[in-house]
Amino acid sequence: MSRSVLVTGGSRGIGLAVARRLSADGNRVAVTYRSGEPPDGLLAVPCDVLDAAAVDEAFTTVEAELGPVEVLVANAGITKDTLLIRMSEGDFTSVIDTNLTGTYRVVKRAARNLMRARSGRVVIISSTAALSGVVGQVNYGSSKAGLIGMARSLAREFAPRGVLVNVVAPGLTDTAMSTALSDTTRDSIVGRIPLGRMATPEEVAATVRFLASEDASYITGAVIPVDGGMGMGH
Question: Which SUPFAM superfamilies does the record associate with it (predicted)?
Answer without folding.
Answer: NAD(P)-binding Rossmann-fold domains
